[in-house]
Design a protein that fits this description.
Distance between the termini: 23 Å
Strand content: 15-25%
Helix content: 40-55%
CATH superfamily of the largest domain: P-loop containing nucleotide triphosphate hydrolases
CATH topology of the largest domain: Rossmann fold
Number of domains: 2
Radius of gyration: 21 Å
Shape: globular
Length: 335
């Protein structure tokens, strides 16, 4: 594989910066969140946004689809939603005197799917998205249907303490590249929202990239170089999330899967491109680690009772695991 060149990365990063600037005009005061959403998009990953209602999660997703000029659909998850309402169903039709079942695609067949309040639906309905998120296809009555490319799921969920919510199955959580926490706005941001927004009015969004340009950038991210020492750091981080493998793992019941390591590598490459570098660094991994790992670590009962969070565990893990180890390859890399 031919690695990305500096000129290619410089051109691509200009498009990405324009996209980020546009999204910052859609959602005020959430620069770090938008930076991570953009990183997740370039890594071809699905993103889970968690926060209280009214913080702009839905507007961010709608603005992203407009800025990329991609087809988007929205599913409002409710307790009575059925799997077929998402994937689609075969419909009996008559043609030339014969009756046969014809598959009618559901809202899952789009480029950007906004799964709004995904944890309000039953686990059975939530699990119907597993194949789509992993394989980018849907199988209904033994027949497989490919989803459009690119395909991204950006799901929002309310904190689990709110009434009428179901925890997402661990298998589905593992399909999300990032879990991002949407924080409330400060006073200055609220004042800006009041002055520049009207209730019920959507902000105007200019198209920054078309589908062809986006695919070029996505392919370029795959060609970002991942040094051996950085790959070794990723492996040691994921291994450190398992009980007994690090001091920080105290209180962890289940650690992260190999998919977490692949997610860290992809996200680090995307972060490198955003920063106009042709290679991923240790700092890229450290930056995306909380978003990649926080939903892939399960704490034991005692830790939860004591008020310990996965964010606390990840912070301790990043402080404990050094960038280099004695066993790591001696490949030099700039940070």
């Amino acid at each position: 594989m031919q690695f990305a060149t500096e000129s290619e990365v410089a051109t691509a990063s200009q498009h990405v910066r324009s996209l980020s600037n546009t999204l910052n005009q859609v959602l005020f005061g959430q620069e770090d969140l938008i930076d991570l959403v953009t990183t997740g998009l370039l890594a071809r990953g699905h993103i889970l946004l968690e926060g209280l209602p009214g913080l702009g999660k839905t507007e961010l997703v709608k603005g992203l689809s407009k800025a990329l000029s991609l087809d988007s659909k929205r599913i409002q998850f409710t307790p009575d939603l059925l799997p077929g309402d998402i994937t689609g169903n075969p419909v009996l039709q008559e043609k030339d005197g014969q009756r046969k079942f014809v598959f009618q695609p559901g809202p899952l067949f789009t480029n950007i799917l906004l799964a709004d309040e995904i944890n309000r639906a039953s686990p059975k309905t939530q699990s119907s998205m597993l194949e789509a998120m992993q394989e980018r296809c849907v199988t209904v009555i033994g027949e497989t249907h490919d989803l459009p490319a690119p395909f991204f799921v950006l799901a929002t969920q309310n904190p689990i303490e709110l009434e009428g919510t179901y925890p997402l199955p661990e298998a589905q959580l593992d399909r999300f590249l990032f879990k991002l926490e949407v924080k409330r706005n400060n006073v200055d941001t609220l004042e800006k929202i009041v002055n520049l927004r009207e209730l019920g009015a959507e902000p105007e969004v200019t198209t920054m990239m078309n589908a062809t340009q986006l695919n070029e950038v996505l392919n370029l991210v795959r060609r970002i170089y991942l040094p051996d020492v950085v790959a070794n750091y990723i492996a040691r981080l994921v291994d450190g999330t398992h009980p007994g493998q690090s001091t920080a793992s105290t209180g962890i019941k289940y650690g992260s899967s190999p998919r977490a390591a692949l997610s860290l590598a992809s996200a680090a490459k995307a972060r490198a491109l955003i920063n106009e570098r042709t290679h991923a660094s240790f700092e890229d991994v450290k930056y995306v680690a909380p978003a990649v790992l926080r939903h892939r670590i399960v704490l034991d009962y005692n830790s939860r009772v004591e008020g310990k969070t996965t964010n606390d565990t990840i912070t301790a893990l990043l402080a404990e695991i050094p960038f280099q180890s004695k066993e790591a390859p001696r490949t030099m890399v700039s940070q």
